[in-house]
Amino acid sequence: MCCWPKYGSSIPNAISSPTALCEVGPLKASRLHIPTLRQTPADAELAGHALLVRAGFVRSSSAGLFSLLPLGVRVIRKIEALVRREMEAIGAQEIMAPTLQPEGLWRRSGRYDLFIPPLMKLRDSSGREFCLAPTHEEAVSELVGFDLRSYRQLPLLVYQIERKFRDEIRPRGGLIRAKEFLMKDAYSFHADRDSLEETYRQVLAAYMRLFEACGLECLVVEGETGSMGGEAAEQVMLLASCGEDRVFRCDTCDYAANASCAACRAPTSTPERDTMGEATVVPTPGARTVEEVCGLLDVPPETLVKTLLYESGGRFYAVLVRGDRELNETKLEACLNAPVRMAEADEIERITGAPVGFTGPVGLPEDVVVLADQEIRAMVDFVTGANIAEAHLVAVDVGVDFEVDQYADLRDAVPQDPCPRCEHGLLTVTRGIELAHLFKLGFQYTEPLGVRFSGVDGRERPAIMGCYGLGVSRLMAAIAEVHADERGLTWPQPVAPFDAAILLLHPQDEELYRQAEALEWELEGRGWDTLLDDRDERPGVKFRDADLVGYPWQVVVGKLAKEQGNVEVRARVGGAEVVCPIGEAADRLTELARQDG
Q: Cis ω on the peptide bond leading into residue 155 (within 30° of 0)?
């Protein structure tokens, strides 16, 4: 028998039974911390984030750091419940791996000094170095590797919902891109690629069901592998004008890709070279940019070739793109299979003999590798830097004045580019918020971290790995961006902080209070997550707060209840509204919710 210290052996009525410890009754607004604000926060970049702050869901602690208030925690817990339901439905098992991870683990994978954005690093009292995990590929690979022995243990799919830390240089969009955030990350291990493909599709389908339950229409697009590495990646995007990602889509077929990796089709023809022409040096004093050079020489930017000097692995590369194009560093890194950095001004002058702005491909040192975007194949008589201060070359041709070591797709896609997949489509561009990122990692981590198993033939081999990230706190922010109107938030019911709010307009009236509380208990008994707004506030304040917070349903217990015994049942979205006796309110609310879908 337990003894309650304050009361001796007498336990208070509220916890007089084991079940009462967790069943203390429905919540009252007068006891819940919901600090709503009337003014829009000055530092809010996105409308949804401003509403989350105003409605009392989150508060900023520092740039990229946020505290969740009680309403915010309730939404997060409901999202987590949906995540767990979908993960368990496909056989995923929940784990918890350490967020604080030793330096050595990340050095074994080779990511300790290369992860972007940079790792948050710290030392313990013994001087050992650690990082706060931005993701858990290393930790989960090591964990699985401890016990993996046979192909009979595969496939294995594990997941966790944990805080992650990334040293974002410029946090933005509130919870969309923060230094500390809540993430659901899953990892799968397989004996063969067919098994990986099957699990990959199962996880993607689970994510799409989850987003549909959250009231979001999403698009699956090709994504970059980035700091995670691996063989291929896809992203699930919520198309929204406020999104930080650009998404290219074909207007004819189903091709879609993040701008960072949207493919560009190679030219279909190669022009004849004018081998009789000769490149000529022309003075271009003070003209360093494409615009300045084209203005001075009176030529269009598509007749100019930019030469950008990069370093990777101790070697320098001259990268050529057309003057009206932008180099895509993600594609460049994929081409070299290594990270790159742009050369410093002193390096450029040492290698080319000219200051920044006058670099060109003609006459570069032999140890500089010349890479060219595939569009350069179709260019003749173009303009480049002369590797001479205040000068450019005109009438330059590949194969006559210099040689290209390798052609590749190296530029950013632009609207109206031909679709890289179909024959007749053109690319359009829109913006999106990344909700999930899925990777086919292959042996990226299992090889260096020794995640090996014995196959059917008895031979030992590394497991094949997949990774599936989903931003939980970002998902809450994304829902707020889409589900809102001029009055406030409009949460879909599965993730709303409460399904319904009972607005008691005269809380001093004991009979009305008793009836409202009885209705609250009845709704709770039917599975409705209900809040009774019993605050001593004016009716207008309660209506404004209910709309701002975004409860999907409102039951108004006010003048009609006092005079006629009726209440108003209202939908936050769609305008559905009925007046009915208070004793029928639970039935009518359930009926309206069923009709609403």
A: yes
